[in-house]
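Section 3.1: Structural characterization of target chains.
Under the original work plan, the team committed to producing a structural model for every single-chain target entering the pipeline before any wet-lab resources were allocated. The record below documents one such target. The sequence was received from the expression subgroup and is listed exactly as submitted; it comprises 155 residues.
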Amino acid sequence: MSTVKMKLRILPPLVMLIFGFFMYSLNLLLPFGNFDFFGRRELAIFLVALAFLVITIALFQFSRVKTTTNPINLKKTSSLVTNGIFKYTRNPMYLGMLLILLGFGLKLGNAFNTLLAAGFVYYMNHFQIKKEEQALMELFGKEYTLYCKATRRWF
């Protein structure tokens, strides 16, 4: 189980903030791509509120079974959570972060921010989630394999 400790240098919330900074910068620097529609502000607020609800539920579920939320040192993981919100998404906290970025992108009103949100998904899949999945496979084996087959990575 030596590979269980991940060699990450950037925590996922910080990755989200970095992508948010890029979205803000793109909005300032790009002279085109702006959009508006009826209810844009309300939809942005709804997405961010939904994000916080999803993240809070996931954190509560982890807390209830007394397992870690630390994505860097997964050997402290004591339980595989597969019920509740984890029945619908294997990564509700990352989904919540994506919803925050999408809400922020809507608030900014620049269509090119969707490309940065897609970049966040790519980054998380490639540099975070795949490594977590390998570690969880080592910890939980067949149980985790069956969970992956039954539940999507994002939604």
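Residues 12-25+38-70+78-150 form one domain.
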